[in-house]
Amino acid sequence: MKPSNEISRQRRLFHSKRYGIGLLFMLPWLIGFCVFVAVPIGWSIFMSLHKVSVVPGGFKYERFGLKNFKDAFVVDNVFPIELITYFQQMLLMVPIIVIFALLISLMLNQRFPGRFIFRAIFFLPVIFATGQVLSELFAQGAGEIPFLEQYNLQPMVEKYVGLQFATTVMDVLGRVVLILWYSGVQILIFIAGFQTISPSVYEAVRIDGASPWDSFWKITLPASVPFISLNVLYTIIDLFTFPLNPVLQHIRANMFKIDTGYGYASALAWIYFGFVFALIAVVLWLFGRSMKSRGKRS
Amino acid sequence: MIRKLRRVTPFQVVLVTAFTALAAFMSIPIIFILNHAFKPQSELFLFPPRIFVQDPSFRNFEILLLHASNAAVPFTRYLFNSIVVVGLTLVGVIVVSTMAAYVIAKYRFHFKGLIMGMITLSLMFAPETVSIPRYLIISGLHINDTYFGHILPALASPVAVFMLIGFISQIPNELLEAAKIDGASQLGIFTKMVLPLSIPAIATISILTFQGAWGDVEPSTLFMQSETMRTLAFYVNSLISGLQNSVAGQNMAAAAGLLMFIPNLIIFLLFQKRVMETMVHSGIK
Which residues in B204-242 are b (16+ Cβ under 10 Å) and which e? Predict the structure, then answer.
């Protein structure tokens, strides 16, 4: 029998070895991340507190304090309005995209003839998610649906959801095509997620007499909560970093203006980012809570 | 019994019809791009734009090739650069991200919470806002005008790690422990168990990474001063933006748009088959 301090020493050695291996696997990613992501982001905080101007041979930093942040709300008359409208739209679009993706992937998970071809077609929009293709299509108006104007839906929408939200709802309706295209990756994640549910579970509940309706609510949905949360996050991030979104365009426009410059653009980016971060924190908290309560019950 | 299951039910008929309608609706843009590239000059400027081409011709591609052969740097050089950059980026991102995601999902180590927080934070940051600091770092490391300048910034991809963590944490711990008890080394567990089991997720991030790297013009514009180090995406982009107002430019833009789009389609079709393959069939039951 070994003395107790010998055991604890060995335990410590074991743990530090495990820690070491963990860090070793992390290392390549961590270095790349620090150099090309973390440092530039930190740098942009520094810049947001300064007025940055380009002089021959480098940059000139002029200390500004929080003036850039104050200007964003007090002086700039475009930024706050764009920020709020975009957030309203996103709050409506994210749930629609995720629910749509969930429904489509549930149906695609069924057994029916030609399933393979349909899966391929629904993933195809993934290709559009980036690149000039999308922006060119939008410039030509291919992203809008004509029936909105034809049937004059505006008064009807105003009647049912109230005047202040009508424009938001109309905007979202106008982006139905965008929603369809944006759900490619989400469908992909859901379908791959459904594969982690063992078929024998479904078989067991079927033998116990559960209807497909029951098995969806009791098995498929709870098992895909992690994937729903993953998808909500992915959708939020995808929409907020979408290069055509008006807020980012405003930021980019300010980047090369002489009177505002890179410092002001960085401050705008940080404000925008603060709002997105708050939204994501709420989402994470909600899903974390629901997963925890589920874990307790089972 | 099996015969009965295979029978087509009314539900399936409804499902297939609904999907056909939706699929037709969603594939409009793809059909549009395909047709647009073959439209002759007279049809390119029609208003309202038509989806289908009436009088297909290869004229647009001829103009594009003619223009490319007159350029200072041959077209094949751009293509070669693109292939090298995209290939290396893809391999690099997969290896680096799966390693990182594996330990984050399955190990405990110092600063794990901090790293997770940083990943989520950096996901939200639009790449445009950090381009100037990035440029300063790249030139500080003296990797301008090298392939490293293209590849290294793309390697530490928060999106890929973020998606992989979700999948790898679904692999049962028992399986990994069993492998450990059977005497597998850490590297063995990673290459023989974790990598094969997370193939659906790897396929997904491959599609995303490919698109990102293939269409990315930022490194070519900012980090590469020499024209011979720039990629095809940059060439096509400069072609389109340089000739946007001229009539001949529209022809080339349409053809180049299709050329840029086709590799995406091929990669997509190649990998999406893998995505379908189940995780369950590899021994977890």
Answer: bbbbbbbbbbbbbbbbbebbbeeeebbbbbbbbbebbee
